[in-house]
Amino acid sequence: MSMNTQKDVHLVSYASSVGGPGPGCGEGPLFLQQSTIFADLAKTGIGLHWQLTTTPIPADPSKLGSVLRQCTELADEISELVRDKKFFISLGGDHSCAIGTWSGVKQAMQQQALGFIWIDAHMDSHTPQTSPSGNIHGMPLACLLGFGEPSLTNIGTSGAKFKPENICLIGIRSFEEGEATLLKQLNVRIIGMDEVHHRGLADVLTEAIKIATTGTVGYGLSIDIDSIDPADAPGTDVAEVDGLSGEELCQAAQIFAKDTRLIGAEIAEFDPSRDQDQKTEKLIARLVSAITLGK
Question: What is the pTM for the complete model shown?
Fold first, then answer.
């Protein structure tokens, strides 16, 4: 790619932590909008276009009401971008943003089959019946598979946005029985940290892309910051030890830049108040560069 070739990225922000355990990650997208490190991506050949920021409003009657409203806003914006064939990155906020992001993609693609790669320490596949905490950020993947609170599963289009056989989870190391049972029943491919250590992340991503592109027109990528080891990315609310290497993830993620089947990406659960020495902030900028430019 020559230096004068600019790659445009349309950024959509879900500045909310309503679906999570505490307030921190709601500030993540707002922080990145002011970040000079993030702004410096423009010098590398990435055109950053901040499209929309959704935030909680006092009038929202409940956590569910807030998540539903914001995810619906997010879905409408993403749907428009996908229809216009514009590459997007959705920035959370807590990971309930995924319900809005990927419902929006499905809204644009309608009957066409889509694949999905979910990189996370957690499965996020609870329903209200199985969740110990009731936090919606532990439910987005179940919602996208058509299970859970009906108002959330029916955003954009009714029911499931992905088929289980086109989904791959990577980096899983903390989960509860209820969500694991659901994914096992659906036969979703789950690659835990032991397997990542054994095979290497690049090899694992190659398999995940195959799963996500078999019989689909394209696929999405969702990265939770807590998938990365806290030593490399301390700025997150539910940190789990023994995570992905930040360096390895940035290297392996370069594969996405060359893949025209990638419709868009999402990076969630960045809590700037927990960051140390701008480690997580810098890593997010590097991830955007890897996914977009392949460098």
Answer: 0.97
Q: Which of 73, 77, 94, 95 is catalytic?
A: 95
Catalytic residue among 73, 224, 266, 271: 224
Nearest to 266 by CA among 16, 96, 23, 41: 96
**59 vs 16: CA distance, rounded Å:** 14
122 in active site? yes
To the query of whether residue 76 is one of the catalytic residues in this protein, the response is no
Active site residue 124: yes
DSSP of 230-241, one letter per residue? TTT----SS--S
pLDDT for 31-44, tens place per residue? Answer: 999 999 999 999 99
Say yes or no to pLDDT of 1 above 50: no
Give the start-to-end residue ranges of the domains of the chain.
Answer: 7-293
User: What's the pLDDT tens digit per position in 256-279?
Assistant: 999 999 999 999 999 999 999 999
Core vs surface per residue 77-102: b (16+ CB within 10 A) or e: bbbbbbeeeebbbbbbbbbbbbbbbb
- Amino acid in the structure at residue 267: I
101 φψ region: left (φ > 0), alpha (ψ -120 to 50), beta (else) = alpha
Q: Which CATH number does 7-293 carry? A: 3.40.800.10
Find the radius of gyration of the CA atoms of the chain: 17
